[in-house]
Amino acid sequence: MASIDNNEKSNIVGGYEFLSETDANKANMDLSKIKLLESRVKVSRPKDMLAVYQKAIENKIFKTPIGWRYLIDLREKLLESGFSEEELIPIPVEVSFTRHSAFENLTVKQRIKPEKEKEKLEFKRIFPIVLDVVLVILVILMFIIAATSENDNIINYKRNVTNRYSTWDEELKEREKAVREAEKKLGIESSEGYHEDIGDE
């Protein structure tokens, strides 16, 4: 536990706690620069303060909030000494404090494109399923048509032939019966060549 506390304390510089040792080292360098400048710059000379303020910003001397705080102090002293806001260079903040997602940085066209690609993928995934369903329905319809059709085919061949034979047999029996009745009326008793089951009636 003690080693963790020491590591955390090593990243604290000038009242700021930095996320990494590298940032803490940069803050220490900013502190050293501030001490050097304070030893050389006289607060009683506003022009000297202005020169330090401008050079520090132009040359990007400070890299951490500790250095920026020093620049803010200088700026306030310069304003108090009679300089206006327009005469002083603004302090640049080169760090973004708002997190942006990669999607927010895309243009409108780039944002729409992934949606279109997603739609294409959905279509490619669904289309084969729809096609399979349509084909199954068509096959079922073909079987129904083939089974109910009066024309002979591989599905209804046996049934159609059986039906036709039964019809012919019935017709033949009816004709033989009519012929037999006509023969009886004419007095012809010979039943040779007729079906035996006709006489059973």
Explain what the structure shows.
- The chain crosses the membrane at residues 126-147.
- Keywords: Membrane, Transmembrane, Transmembrane helix.
- This protein has 201 residues and is an all-alpha fold.
- It folds into 3 domains: 12-87, no CATH class; 118-151; 152-187.
- It contains 6 helices and 2 strands; from the N terminus they run αββααααα.
- The chain has a two-stranded antiparallel sheet with strand order 1-2.
- α3 packs antiparallel against α4 (65-80).
- The longest helix has 41 residues, at 108-148.
- It starts with a helix and ends in a 15-residue tail after the last helix.
- Residues 1-7 and 197-201 have low confidence and may be disordered.
Which strand-content bin applies to the residues? under 5%
List how many beta strands DSSP finds: 2
Number of domains: 3
Uncertain parts: 1-7, 197-201
* Element-by-element helix/strand order: HEEHHHHH
Distance between the termini: 117 Å
Approximate helicity band: 55-70%
Q: Numbering strands along the chain, what is their spatial order in the largest sheet? A: 1-2
Keywords: Membrane, Transmembrane, Transmembrane helix
Transmembrane segments: 126-147
